[in-house]
Amino acid sequence: MSDANGKGATRRRGRPPRAESGDTRERILITAREEFSERGYEKTSVRGIAKAAGVDPALVHHYFGTKEQVFEAAIEVAFAPALKAPDAIGDGPLDGIGEQLTRFIMGVWENPTTRKPVLAIVRSAVNNETAAAVFRRLIAAQLMRRVAARLQRPDAELRVELAAAQLVGCAMLRYVIKVEPLASADPEQIVAHLAPVVQGHLTGP
């Protein structure tokens, strides 16, 4: 069936042409990340994401599925820099892994561009169990287990979690709660104090 201009039938609502699909999906994902960052998990809805992205809610479901799945996709993008930590520490000697990991993670937090979405996702995970479960699944699969594989110890995953707790705890005090003098301390000073502790968790007795 043709329209008044002789063109083919109107495209079904919510489905963009193939040439536009990649851009549309990316726009939805960027919008979802912004919505979760500003509102948190509980106050963000698929309908709200769709409205902000200028698409039909059915299109959000088409690309991502449920709200939880949208959140997981948004997390993966937001945490992409931090998830590169296993690659950043490389395959070198383990006696320097504590400083490498500390310096890399601190760099993610120090960069305003990466810090904002990471903080937003962490806040959502703290306040909502569904968000926390998604966060744990992603971080465990893509970050902790990959770092633990380098240690080759029976308690490797526990060691990596303790090191992560040290780094996340420092970040929360510095960037969220802003406890002084930690909040204003020079990053190099923090690395100098923190790296040996992280190293101890990873390779100590």
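Next protein, fold it too.
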Amino acid sequence: METEPIAPERLRALGWTSRSGLITQHNIMENYRLTSRNTIVFGVRRIERGTGFPLPTSEKTPDPALVEELAGAFATRFPSLADVAVARAWGGWIAITSSWLPIAGQVGGNVFYSIACNGHGLAQAPYVGTLIADLIVDGKRPEDLDFLWAEKPEFPRPMMMNRIGLRTVWTVDRFNDLINGSRRNARKGSLPVA
């Protein structure tokens, strides 16, 4: 989702000066990024599993209830911006592995890839990209990349990736919101960032 443009003075009042992305401490995280257009792009909060293969290739329209829930989360995290409207929302498929770790590898002699950040790409993708870049330049695979490297990616059937499992993880995350103080911290103006 993306907000409408926000007045620069209201953004300055947040104290968010670097335009670095922010994420919450959830299994199914919320992520927020300040754009050069003075909007905030945010997403994730709930995921759903595709019911068949291949996944539909047409644009995935987000569920209006999910859009409302995510807009409410935005208002909770940024109470001073609770009146800012959502300008647009979109959806799409993400890749999730049973280990909840991304996978990196090489196809042929000159194609390197990283996939399946499991909804945590805002944090993981730039780091994994630098590891792959180092590999391309030096020809030596960094140790951190060894944990993600797959000579031949094979995926066992994920146990928690059915509708009930995903709903359970989401419910636990929302319960943790109630008991861990993240809403209280947001109201006080301090964002816990992972």
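About the second fold: The CA atoms of residues 131 and 143 lie 9 Å apart.
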